[in-house]
Amino acid sequence: MKKYVFQFKEGRASMKNLLGGKGANLAEMIHIGLPVPPGFTVTTEACTRYYKEGQKIAEDILEQTFDALRELEQETGKKLGNPDNPLLVSVRSGAPISMPGMMDTILNLGLNDETVEGLARSTGNRRFAHDCYRRFIQMFGNVVLNIEHERFEDIISGVKKRRGFALDTELGAEDWQDVIEQYKNLVLKHTRREFPQDPREQLVMAIEAVFRSWNNHRAIIYRKINKIPDELGTAVNVQAMVFGNMGEDSGTGVAFTRNPATGEKEIYGEFLLNAQGEDVVAGIRTPRNIKDMAALMPDVYRQLTDVCALLEKHYKDMQDIEFTVEKGKLYLLQTRNGKRTAAAAVKIAVDMVKEGLISKEEAVLRVSPEHVVSLLHRRIDPEAKVEVIAKGLPASPGAAWGHIVFDPDEAETLGQQGQKVILVRTETTPDDIHGIVMAQGVLTSRGGMTSHAAVVARGMGKPCVCGCDAISIDLEKEEFRVGDLVVKKGDIISIDGSTGQVILGQVPMIDPVLSPEFKELLGWADEFRVLSVRANADTPEDARVARDFGAEGIGLCRTEHMFMGQDRLPVVQEMIMAETKAEREKALAKLLDFQRQDFEGILEAMRDLPVTIRLLDPPLHEFLPNAEELIQEIAELKAAGDEETLKRKQEILKRVKALGEFNPMLGLRGCRLGILYPEIYEMQVRAIFLAACSLAKRGIKVYPEVEIPLVSNDNELKLLRELVENIAAQVMKEEEIKVDYSIGTMIEIPRACITADELARYADFFSFGTNDLTQTTYGFSRDDAEAKFLPYYIDHKILTEDPFIVLDRRGVGYLMKTAVGLGRGVKENLTVGICGEHGGEPSSVEFCHEIGLDYVSCSPYRVPIARLAAAQAALKNKKNS
Amino acid sequence: MKKYVFQFKEGRASMKNLLGGKGANLAEMIHIGLPVPPGFTVTTEACTRYYKEGQKIAEDILEQTFDALRELEQETGKKLGNPDNPLLVSVRSGAPISMPGMMDTILNLGLNDETVEGLARSTGNRRFAHDCYRRFIQMFGNVVLNIEHERFEDIISGVKKRRGFALDTELGAEDWQDVIEQYKNLVLKHTRREFPQDPREQLVMAIEAVFRSWNNHRAIIYRKINKIPDELGTAVNVQAMVFGNMGEDSGTGVAFTRNPATGEKEIYGEFLLNAQGEDVVAGIRTPRNIKDMAALMPDVYRQLTDVCALLEKHYKDMQDIEFTVEKGKLYLLQTRNGKRTAAAAVKIAVDMVKEGLISKEEAVLRVSPEHVVSLLHRRIDPEAKVEVIAKGLPASPGAAWGHIVFDPDEAETLGQQGQKVILVRTETTPDDIHGIVMAQGVLTSRGGMTSHAAVVARGMGKPCVCGCDAISIDLEKEEFRVGDLVVKKGDIISIDGSTGQVILGQVPMIDPVLSPEFKELLGWADEFRVLSVRANADTPEDARVARDFGAEGIGLCRTEHMFMGQDRLPVVQEMIMAETKAEREKALAKLLDFQRQDFEGILEAMRDLPVTIRLLDPPLHEFLPNAEELIQEIAELKAAGDEETLKRKQEILKRVKALGEFNPMLGLRGCRLGILYPEIYEMQVRAIFLAACSLAKRGIKVYPEVEIPLVSNDNELKLLRELVENIAAQVMKEEEIKVDYSIGTMIEIPRACITADELARYADFFSFGTNDLTQTTYGFSRDDAEAKFLPYYIDHKILTEDPFIVLDRRGVGYLMKTAVGLGRGVKENLTVGICGEHGGEPSSVEFCHEIGLDYVSCSPYRVPIARLAAAQAALKNKKNS
What are the positions of the active site (chains A, B) (predicted)? Predict the structure, then answer.
């Protein structure tokens, strides 16, 4: 017969899936000799059967439960329901993965009108016994019988009022008896049944209630958010009661073995004298700092610190424990790995290595890369009380506050005057760049994670909240509305680009610092990882940040962002408006100087390291004003009769329309531009090599890697490789110096993956552009998908993840693997990396390690995360192989 | 030593690659005993070496040439350059694939100041000899020495004028001597060298000129258009002269063994008495019908008809021959398979089967599917002289003429009055449908092969020329301009949607008929093909046409085209403008009736055959007016102060903007719509099954196949399969009758191909949507690519074909093959077809056969082409295996 019920002493920590976390750890503590009240666990498999069999507990499981109960009675020498020597138990849920929202605890189960008297006699404490009973009815009534908590509280308040008391502690045994009678009436009225007096019935009902709570609304939501499978089920722990409410030598509390906020090695927690567990939660009495126990109960405190040390040594991790002291004797009711802040996680992992508790490998594996993201950006003080008025997409991480401004020109003026401003726009265009530059952050009501605002803000490392459609902007009135709330120009808001939150007013913020421990941990990570980590950076400033964070090169330098500068944009527009090649070349000549300076800056900042420079990628119309705005302007100008401006605008509109595309993502961009307008790429390549040569002359070692974007067939690459080689040779000859360089391609089109063997013949390196590759593999336009249907898809489990955030291994990953195999088949030493945003996402980094990439490249602020994730991938892979 | 020169008698027809077509066929004719003047061929490999070795003929090749010459001298008993008995030769080019534009012929080579006298003596005809010499200098001067043809003609004109003659025939021997002197002076002046007197030098120069002509501009262009590899090279044929200009018992001519226009079995051609070959071409004298020879030269004519019969029997194909008669003796100078019209090709193939010349298989293989396209549409009479004023994209085949109209309302009105109109628009939108319906054809200046106009016109089977950017439309003035030409409303134009031509005025047209021979040939094709052939049809009319053309089912019925009807569009817009599900359902209820009728019509038309009905695919904004136009209207309404209309338009604009997408191709469309708005798909599925049940009740067998578009992961399909199954079951229960049906999916996203094993679990059939699959595999938006960079790519050989026309086997094909393998791996009996436009393109059909698809589906008018292509694929495959 299958075993559905385990005595605590039969279990071990390793049996978490079967016994749940709480049950497995109680078993483990008994195993290592810690004082744990005896009990047993009904397994998660029993829960699964409960649901399979139409929400009924099967007979065999009930039998095993009562067998276990009998054994518990023997061990404690008490008996459930025996008025002379009643056994009381607690019933607690315990899933394999800790999960708030489920039924927590029923204490004192086993009490009824008779056993309560027995308890009074055996403890000699009538008030205590009746207090226990009323607590039991209250908890049972609430969690098993679904009677609102307030209804019970109202009854106590009524009695206190009648008796003129302020505090619960003033109530005596008779008062509690009065309360109990009223409680029982409440139960009768609510359930049309008497409060169950049979303790076995109580037990079965409680177990069922735990099973049911697995599928209550809060638990389902929690599982969805945390991606916990619905099939796991919960276990139920039935444990002999110990009482913290038996006088001033009793108490109850929770403790962390280290400070969960800072990671300091010190016992941290709180306790209450003469109380049962839920009193701490209820917040009726203010708990005391655990350190006060040292004076109040010196023996117990010493014992507790010993237990903490033992548990840490045993579990090799910081523990979060619950304990009860009954008449001077310490009992442990729970231990689990304690939740902690990112900073604490880092410090604890590093400290534990130094204490010899864990290895460096374990320390590296223990810190979640996603968790430490928060340490790398300015953030809203988690202690602060904030009023979130709206939520948009978390488009560029970090937090900022400022006076809101709707006009980019005004943002620039005020910003230059030193005022902090947040630029609020429906969406941004290249014409707004000067405003974004001077703003603390950007908030838009339209556009997704790759909208102009998002891309530009991420590029500048500025916080940005995008597509916040809850706010409706009135540009004329210079205000926005959220429901009834009107926020006007000049009002202060705070935004958090890591969470998408928009907050009214200024909130306290915390600046990022890499703690010495974090640096040490990353150093260890570097020892283990196989993947190299580069950064995506478009400016010397970004490059420097990336280098400080440990980047070993630039994996993607987007030259188009250099086109967006306020001094360059008019020249870029001049180039685009050019109607002949000669006119275009004139404008390009002006851009050459700008680009040379750009490249010189970034190459110098990355001296001794490789810098992958991608030639112009976006469609040209991205550099021109928006067609719709122009049409409106033109209609207005016609009415106003301003012939000259009208004509100019009409010219621009004509060009905008000529360049306009139905699906710009799939249109004239990337290498297609370079092929149709070779003079643009020629200018860029010339600028790269002028910069490289000039640095080389100053003795600075540079490694430019010229990258051709959006290649879908080998002839494109062949042609452009020739172009690059020709210009490079020409410039190096003119400058009379040689520099090392290589030429490669982005792999971001399915066909490029499939024909990677052909491409490899003309490429020294591949770099996966997984943003675009995801778009084409899925047929999803990211902006449209994230705005229109991806949230629904994820909500309804059609997709488990946003494939633009977590790399889709099944589809996109398959194509990547194909490309790596085909490419290396032709060219063994082909360098292969990734520069899509996935390059900084831990699970995607793991996949990149698995398929043998050489490097990942991500935003500068994600470099430490990628270093950690790469190390974890290598360590996990080593383990598994 | 490698052999670079072959005597005619050493060759065979099979050596075409080495000897060129002309040389190989001369050899073959000698082999079968026909009278061919002797000669030799310098091979194509000699040409290749000529280019490899810096445009120089190698010594060993020259040696072999002179050896061959010696042999020729022995055979003829004459000697090149011998004044007593001069050998004269012709030098002609001959590439492996017949190619106009290359150097054609030099006759009479070997003449110089001395041999001309020898020729005069040996023939006893001074005038003849000097005429030959001047002809030689003229041809040599023109094609070898690059002297303009007119310069020579001017000299003859001068002499005639001086002598008061009108015709060349009036000139005597002395006059020709005069001409020759002037010719030689012209050569000296032009080349600063005397005309070469050494016949061997003449020969080498002529051979070099043939080699050079391989790379002249016209030849290069021709090869590019006809996709002939540049590496083939041309051979040179040197042949002893025979003379058609030796009196009234001599002559020269060309003949086809059957009528190349109609295919009738009759000798067809023309000839000239007393003339050399180039006189026919020069057009100085009007040639006579070949049949006149029967009376003029009865013996020679009988001989000629015998030769024609023999050649057809030998080559098993209609031949195009050149011949010369010298003093009553017939010589053949060339034979080749004759070019013919599509109608003739079909008739000749079928007739030859009946004559026992070829098998049915050969007949089927002999007719090019692309060639017969012209037989399936109305077309411009190829005999007509037309003035092409512009060329656009051939967006929907067929030809039409009409008065031009710029306004769809006017097109509707005039059309209803019975006037023929051509609708001319910048681009069309759904609002223009009523105008398109009543027009003969559509011409747009913007948009590609999948633009609204193109798709709608193809759907209606109406001619359409798209993206004709040479015309600039002025809607206000109601005119368009092409360069200086202004074409006004009411003017007549003709358009040819098969070629993209726009022609001023009305031109004669030919209506399509399937000839009995064509029907017979298609019947044979059906015996051989493995692939089933279906049609893409959206209306009962289209379905009937398709069935008449032999379609075995509907492979794609696009339900959205039914939404575009003028009576439906307002209801569709009402549905889209709905702000609540309830409002949307109200509009959908109205659409249900329309759709039920649509489906009933198409299912009835295809009784007994399967009909694949695709659920709604395009983004909803395609059914709304254009945002830019609305913005302009609104700006104008604001100025005009029409508050009410303004408000309504603003509402629509709001919705248009809300639905607007950055990349609609990759946005909220296909099954994504069906998932977010299940009520739309529910209505469509209900309509399908109401229609099917109603027909079933009338005893009509129907096989609806419900198709889910744009699936990229299995959960989408799983969910929608359930939806379809539920509604189907519900309707069949209500209607109390069962119908057979199946559920499948379009495979049009790379990820669908990669995860086809997962999809196959929820699909009874796959249908490749290769239009979209090509877009996503290449990262090409078809509209943008064809408008912006594909033409450049093809011109510059970056791509050899437009992948939207010819299926890209390397990329898209790889994904298709992967999908077929994965899908059938899971479900052996999975039906797999293709419904992209490639389904009617012969090379793509061949690929579909090779990867084992069950059917191809194409536009109704392409069904015969697909039947033929499918048969050819099966026959070729059988041959190769």
Answer: 452 (tele-phosphohistidine intermediate), 835 (proton donor)
